[in-house]
Amino acid sequence: MENEATGPVSEEALASALNLTNEELIELFSILDRLEHDGLIVCNRNDLYGLPAQMNLVVGTLSMNSKGYGFILPQDKNEAELGDVFIPPSLLGSAMHNDKVICRLNETSTSERAREGEIIRILERANKQIVGTFEKSTAFGFVTPDNTKITKDIFIHKRNFNKAPVGAKVIVEITKWPRKRHNPEGKIIQILGQADDPGIDILSVIHQYDLPLDFPAEVAAAAKNVPMSVMEKEYKKREDRRDLPIVTIDGDDAKDLDDGVYVTKKDNGNYLLGVYIADVSHYVRENSTLDIEARKRGTSVYLVDRVIPMLPTRLSNGICSLNAGQDRLSMAAEMEIGSDGQVISYKIFPTVIHVYRRLTYNLVNKILVEKDPETITANKDILNLLNTLSDLRNILKKRRHIRGSIDFNIAEVKVKLNERGIPTALLKREGSLGESIIEECMLIANETVAQHMAKKQLPFIYRVHEQPDTEKIANLNDLLATFGLHINKNTKTNNIDPLAIQKVLTAVEGRPEEKIISTLALRTMQQARYKEENAGHFGLAAEFYTHFTSPIRRYPDLIVHRLLAETISAKGHLAATRQKQLNKMLPEIAVSSSIRERVAADAERDTVDMKKIEYMAQFVGDEFTGVISGVTSFGIFIELDNGVEGLVHVSSMANDYYEYVEKEYALVGRRTNTRYQMGQSVTIIIMRADAKERLLDFILKGNGVYNDFKRPKVSAAVEKIAQIPADSTPTNSSHNHRHKNKKVDSYQKITHKKKHRSKHLKANHK
């Protein structure tokens, strides 16, 4: 069809061209059905088959925006390189967020937007069950989805209420998909609880992302059959490293300990680094009950208040975890590393270890950074090991920097909850020396394992990170030009080298424009993913890279261990039939693992953001300083010092009309020429913090008016909002204290316009 057909073809024409027998003809029909279901071919209204690209069609996943429009993310690699396809609200048909669809490309209405289209067919529905809040009248009800990308409420007939009370958080099953001018219909299949009940917010996110709360009975039973200590027979065919003082270094609350390390400096000045990873593949055999469940989950999910593990706790916190003082099976990567950070030689092999001590990042930092005398005295037995690890860390980090590895220093914000799940503090965590030591040890082990398997040319799973988005690099260069900087392409490869980006980031370090440039450079990056072919890792400037070091919580790492063990057992060779089987299986595992990783990341981010907003609700009406982290036509995003991000809507900026200057990442006032640009520091007042709606709204101090139309109830002190003069003295912006007795020079309230009244009446009627 791609190479010979001159147009869409019939089944008969295909059968004839392929010279099929009667038996093969029967198989042809099922193959055509499967190809059509997968969107690789399209059957038109005349029952003729063609390829989407040759029919001006694009197949992909619909990603909706809460404003009502969407984008098609093409599934075909060549189409993906041409960019996403914009779908305006009027041309969405009945498609919903995450549906797999076919769209017809239309003539682009503006030169700025690359491609626009119209959805003509839905291949696969994604939202069979939806989590939301139930409201009802006498005869009917509706569920408003928690996911704002699902833009249509679900209509519920009275017979399908299932005794759900008003305001309940529910799971609704779709019974009729949306049609033109008709919302989807459904029935309530589970009542999670009232929206305000403790823990319901997190439970809603878990169900929204279809995360598994419990392990099936057969999986739990399989876990119970796993012994809780290493059996005598398991020591055979393993090298014994129990005499080494191997340590684990993790966070204070970590329970699933994947990795242990040991280092010593040799007489020749080189370092011998041993990285010892839990041998999960020994306990989780291919296609076993435990393996199938782990593949389905793909990864452990670390939500704000709990962990949803990939493996049952008996394994993840028990026999697989490298707990101190207990014999454990591991896969080792021992490397001799020169003073320049290069791996001179290495050995990868199964071993048995006995972790000497469990250390934490805090303890390591107290010893190496704070040099606390009491802590040092109490830990003399590990001082030499830690100092040697620190020296090696510096060498490895320098090596990565020289080759162009890009380090984005992004602070992590951890939300501290009380026993009722209410946020009590935001803890901003910068990378520490203890974490950096482990990071460098894991990076070099991952590279070594990936290079080892790539040279053997055997089936494998790699962690790949491809070239930055070309259009985003061009836009970034437009901004860099104003600072006399430019990211140049490699003249030989015509690609961007990571070193070119690193040099720009180094050039702006400590300068006012550092924040904006580093943020935009990060946004040019593609998303790292798993792949069965090696494509290198751009961000790390690594030719070979994989994930080897976390098999307790990541399925690809478990696969890497399994392939290593199999290769070692087969003395470096795999049978042709096994290679063929792996070549078919690994691409599917790579894709599903990448998808599950993104789902986990989205769920984790949602729960953290929700609790951040809930925490900030106590500070409505207070002032904070922050940095402009994003600029759009509808407003500016501000990141506060405590890591929380909110929006200043352009409609609240009262001193001028503001226009969006895209290439400068700025909003500029027409009359005053006041400029709000990415990276700029501003002072804001928190206007609204609504965790249910996932909204955190700010106004600018000295340039803001407040519309309290949809405002939640707050204290009398903030019943009105201040339009505070720009020359007022700023107050302390710390989020730990409510600002008392704040002087407000004037108050201004926006009068509700007709459209607001109309919207209010419509909402109440609905």
Automatic annotation (TrEMBL):
Its GO CC terms? Answer: cytosol
Region Disordered: start-end pairs: 725-766
> InterPro entries per the record?
CSD, CSD2, NA-bd_OB-fold, RNase_B_OB_dom, RNase_II/R, RNase_II/R_CS, RNase_II/RNase_R, RNase_R
Q: Does the keyword Cytoplasm apply?
A: yes
Q: Which GO terms describe its molecular function?
A: exoribonuclease II activity; RNA binding
**Membership in a protein family:** Belongs to the RNR ribonuclease family. RNase R subfamily.
Q: What is this protein called?
A: Ribonuclease R
| Species the sequence originates in | Pectinatus brassicae
Q: Which gene encodes it?
A: rnr
